[in-house]
Amino acid sequence: MTLLDWQVAWQGALYGPDGFYRAASGPAGHFTTATHGALGEVLAGAVAQLARENGLTHVVDIGAGRGELLTHVAAADPALRLTGVDVVTRPESLDPAVEWHVTPGGRALPHELRDLDGALVFAHEWLDVVPCPVAEVDDDGVLRRVQVDVDTGQEALGPTVSGHDLTWAQTHWETSAPGSRVEVGLPRDLAWAELVSRVDRGVLVAVDYGHRGGDRPAGGTLAAYRRGQQVAPVPDGTCDLTAHVAMDTLDHDELLDQRTALRGLGVDGGTPAHELARRDPQGYLQALASSSAAAALTAPGGFGDFLWAVKRVG
């Protein structure tokens, strides 16, 4: 059995040469996010509205997958300049007008992405797949890094958490109960800070599964998904590996749930007027589909509980 630190194994499993996110099927081959299908159309409309409200002309999608959200944004507002960032080369199906940058993956950002002016930078479910140290309190109350076998997922406690990682844990996720877990969010904070530093003027939004101080999950949140099913976390490249984000530790001006954020952008999920069904049956069906998608995006216990960390620059 060969043990690696979870953070190292996680990075390789998602972004290595045969990593999960480099597979031809892409993430959409395993799960649906709010950027896909009818949900993506509604979310893209909100993204375009947010850009307009802030006088921004450029939308940058961090962790753009195969360009699903950007395709919807282009339809919502063709005047916007669009840029995608992901670990794969430019998808062949993407509109030629959309710019594309390849990133090494994880917290790394492409060199070309800098000096952004007038940009809305939208990082949708990016930080939850930025690998971070996984730690557990041992029987003596000491926080130790968790190691994992890349082939089986079997775990063992490794070295004591120290340095800046320990400082982060003591500041943001303090626990001494044996068996309790901490996902040390420092790499996510640093990744976000680096992204913020690339913007001269604009708005950045991180959207993710998350938690805040006072409501940290005692057992941690590390999870894996394959073909639409939750599976045991094994860092072998065959499944997605994700952990919720300590959203309150990110540099932000606002922190709100997705339900509140989207409603502020005009997404309410209300049922269209029945009169429309009589006057314009096709229009009514389209409005009903959008309404259903909006309801799903704002639903308690689901997408509506996502957190939005908003940072304004310049």
Automatic annotation (TrEMBL):
GO terms for molecular function: protein-arginine omega-N symmetric methyltransferase activity. The keyword Transferase applies. One of its GO terms (biological process) is methylation. The keyword DNA-binding does not apply. Pfam families: Methyltransf_28. Keywords: Methyltransferase, Transferase. This is SAM-dependent MidA family methyltransferase. It comes from Pedococcus badiiscoriae.
